[in-house]
Design goal:
The protein is α+β, with helices and mostly antiparallel strands. The protein is 38% helix and 20% strand. It binds one RNA strand through helix 7, strand 11, strand 15, helix 11 and strand 33.
Length: 890
RNA sequence: GCGAAAGUGGCGGAAUUGGCAGACGCGCUGGACUUAGGAUCCAGUGGCCCAAAGCCGUGGGGGUUCGAGUCCCCCCUUUCGCACCA
């Protein structure tokens, strides 16, 4: 009987579903293991790349089960979001209908892949049953001041007609539709993630089983910087301007100050500016630019007409406005140190501002580094009586007051741009001669002593903008009352149900705002008329806590059962794509901490181990002049139960495109032709799972052949084990050894997520079994072990063959085999003998258990004696099982 | 620009602590069985050479070592991430 996947896969998928094999009673004790694939957005388009994610999860699930763990592996749907709404506008189908239909399709696909989930815990974020608790969570954060409404410049996507979080803006463009994002000043809802910046940063150190790459990306995104806030007095303003710097040690080199054009003091400062009107026009232009345009226009600035006093040199330094200074970071004002900062340097060159060197490379002798200035000189302000201060900066004053002793060349200044680690302060008064780290410490002390500033830790991270001007999302549970202002919906009034009966035209903004029945309500405080918030929540709110909801998905009384969640979480193994390295994973870590602080969970990190699978790519190459090849490639036919690559033949004629460049790989088509097991084996075999893998249609054939051979071997084995068969020859020791070595190898490789080499080991074993069958040996023991080891990768065929051997259904009864070290040992090895690294020949050593015996056997060997005759043997190196190298002195 | 990772046959990729480079698979070549091959099976397949012996081979150049894909230094290339964050 030929291997026909079609006839067996459906049978086993039904059997698994009927037996509810993946359902876990979370209230029962047992050695728990919680594994989770990131829940998908039900987009409706599914290809083999998606499959990789779920197939590798399922292989892990089946492996862990066979090893006796109680494994929870649930699945749900990240079901709110823009594409559903766009589909509604485009095709006139309701977002819910579109979403539910896609969910049904995807669920069917999972089943056809042979993937086992605990569907009793299924959840969909678009159901009131779920988003009820999304709203409840919002109210808890609101109560604690972690959710707030604020006016701020926000990212607006003109195409999607909604605001976006900073994390959703990539290179100044919308991550979804690629439109250039513009800045708008709007009132929006935010989550105060910045309150958790320090904990989110520090927590990364505890995540030992996360990819370094993801941790690094999060660390960069959080952007923790240690430095100092320093006040520079501004006589014209009558009050100081505060700057933030990470290099306070360079303050003696601060020769001017730059403010963001949006800085609140700017209007007062430019009142005296000679070119005030022009400056205002320029400010308006910069303000209206997108972040992208602002950066592309290069460094630009305007002089405000005012000066500040450098508190350490007492020089009057000009205050400039600059488009490169961001209001959102630090204080929106910087001290510019053009001698030691690339951006300040460029700005100073452009506007002819003074440049001063105050840090010398460690390698240069400090004595040789004189005051090094270029550009115009600065005038000093007379310190208004503060003798101590004056005294302290005396050396600096003296140096600074002398007109540029030596005109520094530009290269010299660039060279002076030194690393934090290895510079020495020069021309810097109290800190002259100190290495940079010490200088920073010392100058901060001085700054704090003088009461003009303090040590400061700042973060790049900004608050999470969570409101969206879209329909298909969780309604924000807030009312606006003319009398009472912002009023949260009372918890017993939840959920605020998203009305389904609204029109979608795509032209009039958020349809919710047009729904009078939804908008108009009464204020629970004063009973007067109130309007509902019509913005919905970012869908990343939905996905920031769903992993906990699975434990009690049907609970109508609370967000989840804390007792059970504390038992089952954190998630032991989380699996998903690298695209969520910042967005989802950062938000989930944040929300988990808020849940912790509320007292709902007793852990801070939701995911113990993280694995990011790589994408599957399909070379989309196509010669535009070559339509014939394009058509031909898609014409693969099935004849007499075999795949027929008609496209391949036509392609050979056309001769322009590699056969591997088929464009479409819909999983159903693949399953129809080769079966799910083939797709599973190929997907995991193709490349290391964390790497990007290029799909190859010929490669699939290899996996199919492999399974076909396993199938055919089964026929031979069945003949051997049947009672009618005569006495079989005893299994050969080499096959036994290979079998046990394979058990050890496959076990270890699955644990390390090295699925590709695990499968190659199984192919080797299968080849060995084939050879043994040809030699008439009894292979039934090895064969049944092969089936067990293969099961996580190819569950259907192994169930079927297992049954044919007369055994009980696999998934319910089978255990992972144990390797016997004694059976893995070689009973003789061929040792390669080298003399001084030069290959000399081979020596056979029987029963070589320990190193001394091998060495003795080799040294006592006649031929070896000849090779080393008359030479001085320095040492003899033994590489277990492989070679002996005799090192001699010439 | 800054940061990280990676360069191995025609292709995807193997190779604990440095220890027979190219496992496994695809493709290709030849053969068997066949009306046929696109199924299946057998053999071969890094390069130079008719072949053998031999030599050369893990991006390039140096170095350490009896021995380097692996360790050290310099350079090149690619991919990814961040990108005026003071």
């Amino acid at each position: 009987m030929l291997y026909d996947p079609k006839s067996i896969e459906l049978k086993w998928q039904r059997a698994w579903a009927d037996a509810r094999v993946a359902e876990v009673d979370v209230t029962r004790p047992g050695e728990k293991y919680y594994m989770l694939n990131m829940f998908p957005y039900p987009s409706g388009d599914l290809h083999v790349g998606h499959g990789r994610n779920y197939i590798l999860g399922d292989a892990l699930f089946r492996f862990l089960r066979m090893r006796g763990r109680t494994v929870l592996n649930p699945m749900g749907w990240d079901a709110f979001g823009l594409p559903a709404e766009n589909a509604a506008i485009k095709r006139g189908i309701h977002p819910r209908q579109w979403t539910v239909g896609n969910i049904a399709n995807m669920k069917g696909q999972f089943t056809r892949w042979g993937i086992l989930y605990d569907w009793s815990k299924e959840l969909a974020s678009c159901e009131p049953e779920y988003y009820h608790w999304n709203q409840w969570l919002f109210l808890q954060l609101y109560k604690r001041g972690l959710a707030y409404r604020g006016k701020a410049p926000v990212n607006w996507c003109p195409s999607d007609q909604t605001v976006l979080a900073n994390e959703q803006v990539i290179d100044g463009r919308c991550e979804r539709c690629d439109s250039v994002v513009v800045q708008r000043e709007l009132e929006q809802w935010f989550f105060r993630i910045t309150d958790y910046a320090d904990r989110l940063d520090a927590g990364l150190d505890t995540l030992h089983d996360w990819p370094e790459k993801v941790k690094l990306m999060q660390r960069n995104w959080i952007g923790r910087s240690i430095g100092a806030d320093v006040d520079f007095s501004v006589p014209a303003l009558g009050r100081p301007i505060r700057i933030f710097t990470t290099r306070p040690d360079t303050i003696y080199g601060a020769t001017f100050m730059v403010l963001a054009p949006e800085h609140p003091h700017v209007p007062a400062l430019i009142a005296n500016a000679p070119n005030r009107q022009e400056t205002e026009r320029w400010m308006a232009t910069v303000h209206n630019q997108s972040a992208l345009e602002r950066q592309e226009s290069g460094k630009e600035g305007r002089f405000t007409g005012s000066t500040a006093i450098n508190p350490f040199t007492n020089e009057q330094i000009p205050i400039w406005l600059g488009n490169f200074v961001l209001m959102q970071y630090g204080t929106g004002a910087i001290m510019a140190v053009p001698g030691h900062d690339q951006r300040d340097f460029e700005f100073a060159k452009q506007y002819d501002l003074p440049i001063r060197m105050v840090v010398a490379p460690k390698t240069a002798a400090p004595a040789n580094v004189g005051p090094t200035n270029v550009g115009p000189a600065l005038s000093r302000s007379e310190p208004a009586g503060e003798p101590a201060l004056r005294e302290a900066s005396e050396p600096a004053l003296r140096e600074a007051s002398e007109p540029a002793l030596r005109e520094a060349s530009e290269p010299a200044l660039r060279e002076a741009y030194v690393d934090k680690e290895d510079g020495i302060s020069v021309n810097s008064g109290v800190i002259s001669g100190l290495p940079t780290p010490k200088a920073i410490e010392r100058i901060i002390e001085e700054i704090e002593l003088r009461g003009i500033g303090r040590k400061m830790v700042r973060y790049r991270l900004r608050d999470w903008l969570i409101s969206r001007q879209r329909y298909w999302g969780t309604p924000i549970p807030i009312l606006y009352c003319d009398g009472c202002g912002i009023v949260p919906v009372q918890e017993d009034q939840l959920p605020v149900v998203l009305p389904l009966d609204v029109p979608f035209t795509g032209r009039e903004g958020n349809p919710l705002a047009k729904d009078a029945g939804f908008v108009n309500t009464t204020c629970p405080k004063c009973g007067g008329a109130a309007r509902r918030e019509t913005d919905t929540m970012d869908t990343f709110v939905d996905s920031s806590w769903y992993y906990a909801r699975f434990i009690s998905a049907r609970d109508g009384t609370g967000i989840f059962d804390s007792r059970l969640v504390n038992r089952w979480l954190p998630v032991d193994q989380y699996i998903g794509g690298i695209e969520h390295a910042i967005l989802h994973l950062l938000y989930a870590r944040f929300i988990c901490r808020t849940l912790h602080d509320i007292g709902l969970v007793d852990f801070e990190e939701p995911f113990t181990r993280l694995f990011n699978q790589g994408p599957i790519t399909k070379e989309g190459y196509r010669d535009p002049s070559d339509n014939m090849a394009w058509v031909a490639l898609n014409e693969i036919e099935w004849r007499d139960g075999k795949p027929f690559h008609k496209g391949v033949e036509l392609l050979a004629e056309v001769g322009k495109m590699s056969k591997s460049r088929l464009n479409v790989v819909p999983p159903d088509e693949l399953i129809d032709r080769f079966g799910a097991d083939t797709e599973r084996v190929y997907t995991l075999f193709i490349a290391p799972p964390e790497k990007e893998a290029a799909w190859s249609d010929e490669g699939v054939i290899g996996a199919y052949r492999f399974l076909g051979r396993v199938w055919n071997h089964g026929e031979s084995v069945a003949a051997v084990v049947s009672p009618a068969a005569g006495p079989a020859r005893a299994p050969a020791p080499t096959l036994i050894r290979k079998t046990h070595q394979t058990i050890a190898a496959v076990t270890q490789r699955i644990e390390r997520f090295e699925f590709n080499t695990a499968i190659s080991a199984l192919m080797e074993l299968s080849n060995a079994i084939g050879d043994a069958i040809a030699a008439g040996e009894n292979v039934s023991e090895s064969y049944s072990i092969l089936l067990q080891l293969l099961h996580p990768f190819a569950p259907h065929i192994t169930e079927e063959l297992w049954e044919k051997l007369g055994k009980q259904p696999f998934i319910l009864t089978s255990r992972w085999p144990e390797a016997d070290p004694a059976l893995m040992r070689e009973d003789s090895v061929t040792i390669v003998v080298q003399v001084n690294g030069k290959l000399r020949g081979h020596v056979e050593v029987a029963n070589p258990p320990i190193e001394e015996q091998v060495l003795a056997a080799v040294r006592g060997n006649e031929r070896v004696q000849q090779w080393i005759a008359g030479k001085n043997v320095v040492k003899t190196i033994y590489v277990p099982g492989k070679l002996v190298n005799v090192v001699v002195k010439s």
